[in-house]
Amino acid sequence: MCKVACIGTSRALVVTLLVGILMSVTAPRAEAARAFFVFGDSLVDSGNNNYLATTARADSPPYGIDYPTHRPTGRFSNGFNIPDIISEKIGSEPTLPYLSPELTGQRLLVGANFASAGIGILNDTGIQFVNIIRIARQLQLFQQYQQRLGALIGPAQARQRVNQALVLITLGGNDWVNNYFLTPISARSRQFTIPEYSRYIISEYQKVLRRLYELGARRVLVTGTGPLGCVPAELAMTGSRNGECAPRLQQAAAIFNPELVQMLKELNREIGSDVFIAANAFRMNMDFINNPTKFGFVTSKVACCGQGPYNGLGLCNVASNLCPDRKVYAFWDPFHPSERANRLIVEQILSGSTQYMSPMNLSTIMALDSRT
After folding, report:
1. Which secondary structure element, helix H or strand E, spans residue 254, and what is its range?
2. In a designed cystine with 226, which of 100, 252, 285, 319 is the match (CB 3.0 to 4.6 A)?
3. Which residues share a beta bridge with 220?
4. Is there a contact between 164 and 369 (Cβ–Cβ < 8 Å)?
């Protein structure tokens, strides 16, 4: 029989187990969670434009008023944006802007946000903002990121981490709002009818997505445009009398979004796998725009921050009208949803039916991928 020796061994075993448990609990989530990469425009930009000489910035109050720090971060939101909330739901840290000097070392394992406010599918979209990270450049930075990650963990492991990552891309809205409809008679509107322009930008978008696949992306959430004619900015600029959405912009979204879904289906068939997942942002937004009280909003027409009709004119800044309770406004500023609206959108991304997510929602994707 052993007494003292066995007690000592047992204690050592217990201590070892406790240390192991504590290490697993306190270890950085980056190790366990899949990486997350974000591409696109202001709907998903987490602050890259803070580092650029551009007018497309959200780095001054009252932006960020409901963010944990209560300070502007570069997000076009009163608080969290869609990538933040997706990160929260998949158990990962928020992705840092790629241009952030904090994105070094182990933080690279979390992923990166390459999005830049003002950009579109086309290079001539958002030219009025001058210095923004256009989508071709975002993809170049993604290559650069992979080289940095490879130097940290080795090329093979870096490739695997990218292959297993979740990717979000949000493009298209600016190609309409800040290009085709930028002026009453724009260069693009003289060149194309609305259906012709939609087909053109879809064909260009397909090239972007093919390149993303070539760079290793294997699970890509692709959001369509929201209801472009229903944002407070368009209600104000088109002189909407009773909050009716601008018909030509709505027509554009109604043509573009189904064509995007069809293009993604064709890409998936070509690849032989459900790489690209379509998120019906139009329907997600229209749910609370059409019936705001059902979702706890007092209005889906008036922005929380802005000026003029519907608070839809000019920029959101310290001189703007500012609502006291952001939770009851569907729109934060003239163009962007509030954090609470973003949370409703992410709920549908996570668990929405095939009316919202095609061919499957994010929860289903996560469950399938966990088995492989």
Report:
1. helix 247-271
2. 285
3. 167, 276
4. yes
344/285 Cα distance (integer angstroms): 9
**Would residue 143 count as lying in a domain?**
yes
Residue 42 annotated in active site: yes
Tell me the per-residue pLDDT of 171-194, one tens digit each, with 9 for 90 and over. 999 999 999 999 999 999 999 999
Instruction: Report the number of distinct structural domains present in the chain.
Output: 1
- For residue 149, is it within any domain? yes
Distances (CA, A) of 229 to 56, 61, 234, 251: 21, 27, 6, 9
Domain for residue 250, yes or no?
A: yes
Structure token digits, residue 158: 């870096």
Q: Which of 92, 100, 336, 358 is catalytic?
A: 336
Structure token digits, residue 298: 């007092």
Pairing of strands 276-279, 220-223: parallel
3-state secondary structure of 85: helix
What's the pLDDT tens digit per position in 15-25? 333 334 333 33
The rounded distance, in Å, linking the Cα atoms of 43 and 77 is 9
Respond yes or no: is residue 336 known to be catalytic.
Answer: yes
Quick one: 352 exposed, middle or buried, by C-beta within 10 A (0-12, 13-18, 19+)?
buried
User: Which residue in 42, 87, 198, 300 is the catalytic one?
Assistant: 42
Q: Which CATH number do you get for residue 227? A: 3.40.50
> Helix (H, G, I), strand (E, B), or coil: what is residue 358?
strand
167 and 212 Cβ atoms separated by less than 8 Å: yes
Of the candidates 235, 369, 226, 363, which has an alpha carbon nearest to the alpha carbon of residue 302? 235
Q: Which domain holds residue 362?
A: 30-291+339-370
Torsion-angle region of residue 70: left (phi > 0), alpha (psi -120 to 50) or beta? left
What is the sign of the dihedral through the CA atoms of 245, 356, 168 and 265?
Answer: negative
Catalytic residue among 77, 100, 333, 358: 333
3-state class of 137 per DSSP?
A: helix
Q: pLDDT confidence of 29, banded at 50, 70, 90?
A: very low
Categorize the per-residue pLDDT at 86 as very low, low, confident or very high, splitting at 50, 70 and 90: very high
Residue in the block written with tokens 């194309």? 192
Q: Is residue 320 part of a domain?
A: no
